Amino acid sequence: MTIVAMIVTACASCGSGGDAPLVLYPNETVKAYFALTRQDDFSVVDGAGVRGAEIGPQTKQTAVAAVGATFLTDGFATLTLPRVENARDGRSDSGVGDPLLSVHWTIVQPSMLSPKKPQVQVFAAHKKAVGRSVYEAEDVSWLDVFGGGFDESRVGADLWWGSSTVKAGIAATVLSPHAREIDGVERRPGRGARATATVGYAFGELGKVVAGTTVERRGKREAGGEAIKGSETVDNAVFLGGDVMVTATQAVRLTVSRSAAYGRNRNASSARGVTLAWLGAW
Predict the structure, then answer these.
(1) What is the largest CA-CA distance in the chain?
(2) How much is the pTM?
(3) Residue 131, SS3 per DSSP
(4) Helix (H, G, I), strand (E, B) or coil at 17
């Protein structure tokens, strides 16, 4: 393994609040990821796009552990496990979040000889609703909410032009939540899509910086087979991150982000986030 190989290969969506924070590069067999994210400065955006005070947690800290392994030649799978701690007015509660299993397949490998040719990956993922959701919450400030409440399957593709100093990428994901019966009523979050666009710059063998935006759109939620008027979701997020290589196989990543950051957002939560992560490969 070389440092250059770790820098020039990457993905558009990884580490940006996309589908999975961990990707394996072509010359890696096993890789681990540990991160701590702190979110604060929350505000809620209603269905009309008007911002107001958040009634939920004032701060949220999420510890994430992920591990991935290659299979066959061009595929790898990752498992991501979060643990969430919510706090407000001196009170706090913590619990497990929703785990995510993802499978990636690289159908076009990057090449230093052809920098205009992108790395192309396709992926599928499934999030299992394990953490307590708002439907089971007992705390008035939702401090005991750690998950989304619904299983969700995802498929998508990721293109990354990473073979030159200046880098760029784009990823697109289809989001398909599964219905669930709650209090005798079948409910389903809105189906939707997420797109991530990034640009980056590599500092030789030292690391790289990447900036980008993630745009998510979801249709109306459903209850009892009927669409709920005005329940569509729009979330336009931004992020800026940097990786520093500490050894040939390890890196430290710092990322700052803001959800519902620009444009007209709807039925979204705006928050500032800071993530410090360690990545190591074998």
Answers:
(1) 59
(2) 0.92
(3) coil
(4) coil
